[in-house]
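This section describes the prediction task in plain terms. A model, or a person checking by hand, is given the sequence of a single protein chain and must write out its three-dimensional structure as a string of tokens. No templates, partner chains or ligands are provided. The sample shown here is typical of the held-out split.
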Amino acid sequence: MKLDQSQMPILVASLEEHFPASLNVYHLARNGARQSRLAWPGLEFFVDAFPNFQACICRMPNNKEAREMNLPPFLFANAVFPFSKDARKLEELLATDGIVDWSGKVGFCSKS
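The expected answer:
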């Protein structure tokens, strides 16, 4: 499920409980929740369930959506920032239609 702005503070609070593994997603979510000047515009957050999620993915909209929204480029167009407490749930989330565009290169940015 895709999270909206009102759900971001709950996501951030949960990610805080899983440092350092969640840092890659936490900072992006925190800046977005605060709507700070450091927030990257257009980032989207997906979870397997809410509020008790086991897997979370942060990504930019696909290339077409990003161009339509006039968003600045982000590292590379198809960057995915995953966090998971359960590898199986992350695998299921990654396999969900519409979350990751597998038609081109996908870059995973994670903390191990």
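For orientation: The first helix runs from residue 8 to 16.
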